[in-house]
Amino acid sequence: MIETGSLIRSLSGRRAARNFHTFVINEIGHAIVTGQFPIGSVLASDAVMMEQYGVSRTVLREALKTLEAKGLVEARPKVGTRISPRSRWNFFDPQVLAWHFDAPPDPAFYESLFRARAALEAPMIALAAGGRTAEHVRLLKYWCHQMETSGDSIEQFGLACLEVHSVIAESGHDVLLRSVIGVVELTLALALTRDGAMAGTVYREQSAALFVRLVAAIEAGKPDEALDIFGQCRDLDRGQVY
To answer: What kind and span of H or E run contains 32?
Structure first.
C-alpha cells in the first residue's frame, strides 16, 4: 500500500525506500498506466522479467498478483499476463492514481478526477462543519499556517495542504469518504507542477488564503459557507491543471 503523501514527496526527488516486491509493482504498474505497456498487450515471460528486474520467480509472481488485484493485468492460461482494459482498473487505488501523474495529459481524465472530488468532498465538508472538535480545529489551523509559511517549498506546501484535507476527513467521522484523499493528492500534485494560469507562488498564496477561510467556516459550524469556499479551492486547482 502506498503511503499518503508519497507522490507529493516525490516532487522534490525524494523516493520512499522500497523492497524488491514494491519495486517490481511500481515498475510494471507505472509502465502500464503511462502507456509503455499498451492495453491488450501481453507481458514478457517470467524468465525475461525475472532477469529484467533482478528478482526471483516468487517475488515476480506476488507482484503480478498485486497488479491483478488492482485490475491492471489478467493472467490467462496458455496466453500469459495481459494488460487489462482501463474499465477494469481500480482508479481509487492510491498507487494507480499516483502512476497517472506521469501519464500523458488527459483532460477527460482530469475532469473525472475533479468530478469525483466534488462528489466526495461535499458531504465530507458538511460533516466536518458539524463534527469537528477543538483538536480538529487546532490541527487545521496549524496546517494552514504551514501552508502560509512554506515559501518556495512545493513539498512543504503540498504536504501541509494534504494534511488539511486529511484532518477534514477525520473530523467528518466517515471512513469511506477518506477514499477521496488519493484523488486529492493527485490533483494537488498536478496543480503544483503543471503550467497553469498563475505562477506557482501566486497559486499557493491564493490557495492558502482560501483554506484559512475554509477552516474558519468549519470552526463556526457553517456548512454552506464551507462548501462554497471549498468549491473555490477545487476550482483553483482545476485552473492550474487544465
So the answer is: helix 20-33
Exposed e or buried b per residue across 25-43, where buried means at least 16 C-beta atoms within 10 angstroms of its C-beta: bbbbbbebbeeebeeeeeb
Is there a single domain that holds both residue 111 and residue 29? no
CB 146 within 8 A of CB 156: yes
Cα–Cα distances in Å, from 79 out to 35, 74, 146, 231? 21, 10, 52, 48
> Which triple of cell numbers denotes residue 175?
471512513
Domain ends where: 88, 114, 131?
A: 88
Cell of 33: 498506466
What pTM, to 2 d.p., does this model score?
0.90
Q: Which domain holds residue 64?
A: 6-88
From the number of C-beta atoms within 10 Å of its C-beta (0-12, 13-18, 19+), residue 61 rates as middle
Are residues 57 and 137 part of one domain? Answer: no
Q: What is the enclosing helix (H) or strand (E) of 107? A: helix 107-131
Quote the distance between the C-alpha of residue 181 and its chain's center: 6
- What letter represents residue 51's amino acid? E
Backbone φ, ψ for residue 75 (5° rounding): -85, 130
Same domain, 55 and 117: no
CATH number (domain holding residue 206): 1.20.120.530
Q: Are residues 30 and 150 in the same domain?
A: no
Give mean pLDDT in consecutive 10-residue pieces for the chain, a chain of 242 residues. 83 71 95 97 96 96 97 92 97 95 95 94 94 97 97 94 95 85 94 79 95 98 97 95 89
